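The record is kept unedited without comment:

——
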Amino acid sequence: MKKVLPLLPILIFLFAKFSYANINNDPIDARLKNLANEMIIYKAPKEKHVVTIFTDISCGFCHKLHNKMKEYNDLGITVQYLAFPRNWKEEAKEREKKGAAKVMESIWCTADRKKSLDNAMKGETISPVSCEIDLGKHYNLGIELGVQGTPSILLENGTILAGYSVPEALNRRLNQN
């Protein structure tokens, strides 16, 4: 036992670092409802589960996930997107959004957000558009929930999965809860 005690802080750190985050759902549900009108939603025809994905259009694995949208939806998984431009803080310091954050703002400001996001994920150019939307709310919620990169998948039970998950694996995980 004495040999294990010095290792305990290291083991706790490793467990916390590499385990899934699981948080109380009540405050999350309220925050998500406040952003409901700002989400880009890909509704499953026979919805069984709803996940919220923090995404960035400059993220390769976000593109990979988005390209599998039909498979997620066919499995009954509705996807709700929130913006999480990974370079948000650096761009904010320059007082003018550019790069991925600016393109994401344009996507969220268009009349057809889904079409704009689909086009951006295909690598097409998005015309600059601005509006009163504050993607900082999306980003800050992600930070508060422990999002450190994209894609990050928020499950219905409050668990955050970091990184890409193939549709079948995500479906299995959702069915376990």
